[in-house]
Amino acid sequence: MTFINISEIGVRFPIAVISVLTIIIVFLLIKEITDREIFGLIGSFSLAISPWQSFYSRFSHDAILGLFLVLIGAYIFFKIIKRNSLFALGVLIVILIPFGKMMLGPEGLTRAKMIFIASDENISYQLHKENENLQGTANLFDNNFVILGNFWAKRYLNYWDPGFLFFNGMNFTRTGWPGTGLFYFFEIPAFIIGIFLLFFTEIIKDSKVRKLIIFWLLLGPLAASLANNDQHASRSLTTIPIP
What we know:
- Keywords: Membrane, Transmembrane, Transmembrane helix.
- The chain is built from 13 helices and no strands.
- By secondary structure, it is mainly α.
C-alpha cells in the first residue's frame, strides 16, 4: 500500500515539503544556539536562497533529506546540551540507531569501501603494493599512510577553497550549474563576519555550545574529503548549515 503514487508529483512533492521544513529547522536551530531570533531569520533566509538548496530541492535527491536529518539531529543535540533534556536524548538515540545499523551493515561497509579515498584513480596508482619492500627512510616518508595523508589534507582544504564555496562549486554537480558556488558571492562579507564573530566574540554565550559549533565547522568537510571525489557538492551537506 502506498500513500503517494509514483508520479512526478509523488516524487517531487515530499522533497519540496522537506526543503521547506529544513528552512524552518535552520531558524529553530540558530535561535536555539544564539538565543536571538534575528540570527535565525538571517540563517533561514540564507538557506532559502542558497544555490545548493535550490538545485537539489528541484528533484528527488537524497542530499535534501540528508541535510534535513542532520539539522534535526543537531537541533535535538543542542537542546540536550543546553537543557540536559532526557526526552531529547531519547529521541536522538532512536534516530541514530537505524543509521548506525545501516552504516555498519554489509551494504554500508561495501559502499564505504567503494567510495573511500584510496580508490580514487588520482591516488591509487601512487600507493605501494602490499608485497613491495621499501628500504631505509622510505618506510618513514614514502609509505601509504603518508601518501594518503598528504592527499587527504589537500582534499580537505579544497572544501574551504573560496572558488568552490562561492564561484564554481555547483559546476561539479551532475547537470552542472556554471559560475555558481554553494553560496552566492555577495554572501562573502556575511561569511567572513560570521567566522569572526564565532571565533573572536561571545555571540554564542554558552562556551560549550560555541566550541561544539567550531568543532562542527572544522569537522564538516571530513567525510566528503575521505571520499573518492574532490569538491563534491552534495557531500558538502554536513557543512552547509554552519556558515
